[in-house]
Amino acid sequence: MHKLRQIIILCLFLLTCNLVKAQIGDMRNILSVGGNAGININSVMFTPTVKQGTLIGPSFGVSARYISEKYFAMICGAQLEINFSQRGWKEQFDEQPENSYSRTMNYIEIPFLAHLAFGKEPTGVQFFIHLGPEIAFLISENEKFSDQFEASNVTMAQYGKTAENKFDYGITGGLGLEWKTKKAGNFLIEGRYYFGLSDFYNNSKKDYFDRSAHSVFTIKLSYLFDLIKK
């Protein structure tokens, strides 16, 4: 399983790089920078299972995009981001609704994205696809219990247990729309999903959890302005 994860990451990274290097279409040289902000809808893929609700957290950061060519109708490029991303999970207690438990985990994440777009240029509306690998580094975490908390879920090994692996990696992809203007810059709205391939708890035979990976849906708004446009 570990080797399969490494192969997936390598293939996606090479795809991202090749889209920038390919020189077979109508050439572009457009470098754009800006910022992004949105919300994460978080959960964790646990094995054994932990019953969960929905944990909402912020996501924001900076973006840089380079468009290299247009191949037939497809505009090709790559996008790099550096974001603060709050992940984690919130547990669900069906028989004890007064109980509550949540764990917030703050990451600095760096997605490497292939950017594929279709639509009007240099101004107008474009539909785009993002796909690529992502790495992240855990910078802090915090768990919150309700007053007089009583553990009633079947799985309880997570309580008081901090993350053992602070480096995270996985694959991410998204769909969105971009409105490109002549003078005001570029406005983007996107829905994105991150599938974690690494576990933040150890997963050897002697450890309790076999799987503890992030699953994150993100809705974000971005603004980019063109530094170079040829």
From TrEMBL:
Q: Which InterPro entries match?
A: Beta-barrel_OMP_2 (IPR025665)
Which domain of life does the UniProt lineage start with? Answer: Bacteria
Limits of the Outer membrane protein beta-barrel domain:
28-201
Protein name as it appears in the record: Outer membrane protein beta-barrel domain-containing protein
